[in-house]
Amino acid sequence: MAGPTVAIFGLGAMGYGMAGVLLRAGLTTHGFDINADAVARFQKGGGAAGTLDEVAETLDVVVIVVVNAAQTQDVLFGANGIAQHLAAGTVVVACATVAPDAARDMGQRCADLGLLYLDAPVSGGTIRAGDGTLSILASGSDASFAKARPVLDALASEVFELGEVIGAGSSMKAVNQMLVGIHIAAMGEAMTFGMTQGVAPEDFLKVISQCAGTSWALESRAPHIIAGDYTPLSAVDIWLKDLGIVMDIAKDAKFGAPLTAAALQQYLAASGSGLGKEDDAAIAKVYARNAGVQLPEGS
Q1: Residues 6+ apart with CB under 8 A from 87
Q2: Is residue 50 a contact partner of residue 31, using CB atoms and an 8 Å limit?
Q3: Annotated active-site positions, please?
Q4: Sheet hosting strand 61-64, strand order edge to edge
Q5: Helix and strand counts by DSSP (H, E) for the chain
Q6: pLDDT tens-digit profile of 112-147?
Q7: Where are the alpha helices (DSSP H) in 209-281?
Q8: Which of 245, 223, 232 is nearest to 296 (CA)?
Q9: In a 3-state reduction of DSSP, which class is residue 160?
Q10: What's phi and psi for 93, nearest 5 deg?
């Protein structure tokens, strides 16, 4: 196969779809995960074989698709960390939502080992991860972008190059997550408010999606509520992490973020009610419970 040799670390819902995209793009792609079944499944579907020890020095690009900074750091620098085994000049593409300071720290530690680093959080969810239409919000050196280009172009319909300063990608992702987290909570609030006024959820979606009150979050998540299907495409608990990061950044900047704080409280209430592993549209259940209205139930 032509192009760089790639390894994806993290074969969960996002990473598995992204790894499949790279295979379809004709790139030699290894997949690694703590779940051995996910690795076996990926290799059975065409993923390249070989243990990390066998292939580490052959890798041109490493893509890390895990949940948070702690997991990214563990993949890179933990007891079985990969950074010390990679050849100099390998580019690390770190896709988790992390605080900018954490991105800068990991970028510097990679640079100290002769590795390139892209602070490259992604936006778009599991469906776009699987069809190669993610948005990637990336910062890093020109050399890092150049070496990772075939991978970035395969994974994303939009690659936003946000300069050479590591952390700029994570800063932009924090802005995005602030808005999306608020919008999903606002959608749940508006839909259930409408129900108290006799507005059926189906009519809410039909009308508001064509009005100024619409948003990506509304158009994406309201159908989940109408279907009564809370299979997690993005779970409630993700927002505890992401909006928690936003609030930490805001605190450090001495920036008041009252809407973000209010939305985070609603996600905390949802998680505390046992909804943490459900789709984030389940935040509407908190509003519905408090208002005494009945959301649609799945078949």
Answers
A1: 56, 57, 58, 59
A2: no
A3: 173
A4: 29-32, 6-9, 61-64, 91-94, 116-119
A5: 13, 8
A6: 999 999 999 999 988 899 999 999 999 999 999 999
A7: 216-227, 236-252, 258-270
A8: 223
A9: strand
A10: -105, 105
